[in-house]
Design goal:
single chain; 207 residues; alpha/beta; Spore Coat Polysaccharide Biosynthesis Protein SpsA, Chain A; 5-stranded mixed β-sheet; 3-stranded mixed β-sheet; 6 helices; globular
Length: 207
Amino acid sequence: MAEMKFSAVILAGGASRRMGRDKAAIAVRGLSLLARAVATVRRAGVSEIFISGREGGNYAAVDCPVLFDAKPGCGPLGGIERALSVMSSPLLLVLAVDLPKMTATFLRKLLAVCDANMGVVPKWRGELEPLAALYPKRCHALVLAALREDRLAARDFAEACLHAKAVRTFPVTATDRVRFANCNSPGDLSAIASRATCGVTGSQGSS
């Protein structure tokens, strides 16, 4: 049986207010966060990769199509909406750029429980992780509704997808929890440099 094709979008269009500079361009152990995310999803077997970027950003180094939000200021949902609207595959892998400890192995675990009409959202201790998840094409209608109604929280969108039976949850083990350690501040970067786990605050958003 042929492997199911899926697309990916790397969410790299945030304002990076807490970091004080563009997170996507920051090098972690010799590789920018954006290049690291692209390499991770490529190893997972993605068929097409989009970058959700911001006007004025430099994304040439990763050689992927760049998408800009139809309406700026909508956070991660703006990028998710654009990618769901243009992708050629039945499933979209959404990955925040600030998750340097994410692995292709973990992403393949998620893909293994999906099909063309059913995605998956990781869950840890009752909280959904919507920015390292897979959504089927039919979730486009749900993200459009959320944007129209100004419901911009990524977890609320994931909950709506769950309610619509468009995704299932995937229990995250204590061992895999580190995959969701996000790097939003200079302190998080320092933790990585010292080979410690960066601040585990979930992947609700990238600001």
